[in-house]
Amino acid sequence: MTIPWWREPNVRWLSFCLVVAFLFRLLIVQQQAIVFWYDQARDFTVSQQIIEQHDVKIQGPSASGTKDTVYHGVLYYYLIAPVVSFSGGSPFWTTAWLALLGSTAVIPTYLLVQALTGSTKAARWASFLLTFSFYHVQASTWLSNPQLMSFITPWILLFSWKAIVQQQEKYYPWLALTLAISVQSAIVNVFYVLGVCLLQLICLYSRKSWKFISWKNLILSVLIFGLGISTMLLTELLMVQRGILTSEVVAQFDRDTLSLVAQLLTFFRFNWRQLLWMVSGNSLIGILALVVLGGGFRLLTMTTKRFLLFWWVAPWFVLAWHFRDSPQTYIGLDTIIITVLAVFMTHWQKKNVLFGFIVGLIVMSGNIWSLHQYFQTRNNIFSVQKGAFLRDQIALVDQTYRQSQGKPFSISMLTNPYGINVTWGYLYAWSSREWGYQPNYVGPDQAGIVGEDLLSKGTFQTQHFLIREPDTGLDVRLEEPFIYTQNEFTSLMYTDSFGSLQLEDRLAIKKQ
Fold first, then answer.
1. Which residues pair with residue 412 across a beta bridge?
2. pTM for this structure?
3. Which of 95, 337, 366, 501 is the most exposed place for a label (fewest CB within 10 A)?
């Protein structure tokens, strides 16, 4: 008698992992431990316009360090737009939606490890490790366009193995689709495209044959990839036509110019930090992880070793030219670490069944502890500004309303980026549904900036608040005149802290 597919042991196991992974990530929502700064407020404001204003978008978020001339794909906006709009702009529901998408990574991770090792037990270990991975929790619940790679990267690895290494050409169109999504997610992910091309050339050279795909699948793959990044190509074409993107501008992109020795040192330091983040530990745990990874790596076939090493260093196809010290480049590549760990654990479980139970308990407990610490420290590795979550920002906003006792009040903000106040404009516009009104905004003109109409520009009210964000990185030449103006028209009464956020309660002493 044939067993229905949904009753297959592997399907039941993956269903279990998917549900548990989603519930584990929902703890972020339950604790309101969500990063919500400029990028998030901007993206929410823009995505709402798609449905509420019927504004069709082709341009995604600006790529940092490119002077607003190069843009990521628009897919992320369309992915979150329905949830943002129909939830009333709630970051909580949107985070839950992205957490669900991120949790699906257990499926390609399972399939990848099974394909690489031929072991169902190793595949189960890998999906289990990903389920409770604290690193993956942060990546999959991060409200930002690179979040997509938390569940797309394992598919790229799987399809590149199937299509290129195992020569199953039916997977090329699927590989093209996932590559297009990766580039839409973040322009730096073009290294996956370069990696696929180089991996294909290496395999063809080793086989002494240049035949690898039929014309039908080649044309289909090119069409899928071309359509997938068409909005990005159109955006940059318009930038070139309007003289915004030029060779002179490209030469001025923000990047670190390093000597060869410095690049090598940066390579090892950067990769060491990625490993520490992925195993959620300090240097001691990192060294222990290296020993375990070394043991697992020895058990792999030579082809698998080369494949995994190739993709681990692949980001440097771009980072070597345009280095940005940012962890999001490696989102999803934790699958490689998980694969090697799973192989090691499978090997030792064969020797002692109790070993599997103990290690599984340690892994689960360690990640739960890391999550608990995360709630306390408010330190997300993917966020530039640290020390405060959305729960702290909401508490700050509520405090200003309570302190004002229903009377008009004004606010000013020291923000990152300086003078762009979409973060607090969005939070006050969202909270005003509960409180019934909004404060006046006193500060730089917001005309032409995303969210310019979220707050009304006005004058200092009798009750005034100054909000100081953490890690603004402001030059003293910007901060001093701002504070001088605040002190000229208002008097500081007291300062309250919400995580690393500071709220200054002030009273007006002069009229403008």
1. 466
2. 0.92
3. 366
Burial of 383 (0-12, 13-18, 19+ CB in 10 A): buried
Count of CB atoms within 10 A of residue 238's CB? 13
Residues 210, 211, 215: CA angle, nearest 5 degrees = 130
Residue type, 244: I
pLDDT tens for residues 257-278?
566 667 677 777 777 777 777 7
Q: CA 288 to CA 124: how far, in whole Å? A: 22
The CA–CA distances, whole Å, from 502 to 42, 259, 438, 507 equal: 22, 40, 20, 16
Decide: 10 and 119 in contact? Cβ < 8 Å. no
Q: How far apart are CA 204 and CA 211, in angstroms?
A: 8
| Element spanning 466, H or E | strand 463-468
Q: Which helix (H) or strand (E) holds 24?
A: helix 9-30
Instruction: List the one residue out of 228, 38, 40, 66 whose CA is nearest residue 145.
Output: 40
Average pLDDT for 403-413: 93
Alpha-carbon gap, residue 467 to 298, rounded angstroms: 54
* Under 8 Å between Cβ of 226 and 220: no
Give the single-character DSSP code of 188.
G
Distance, in Å, from the CA atom of 500 to the CA atom of 385, rounded to the nearest integer, reads 9
* Packing angle of the helix pair 283-298, 334-351 (nearest 10 deg): 70
Q: Which of 431, 490, 503 is nearest to 460 (CA)?
A: 490
Q: Which of 148, 164, 157 is nearest to 108 (CA)?
A: 157
Place of tokens 């009464």: 493
**Amino acid letter, residue 407:** K
DSSP letters along 282-323, please? -HHHHHHHHHHHHHHHHTS-HHHHHHHHHHHHTTHHHHTTS-
Q: Are 411 and 505 in contact (CB under 8 A)?
A: no
What are 440's strand-pairing partners?
Answer: 410, 456
CA 207 – CA 432 distance, rounded (Å): 65
β-partners of residue 463 are 507
Strand partners, 179: none
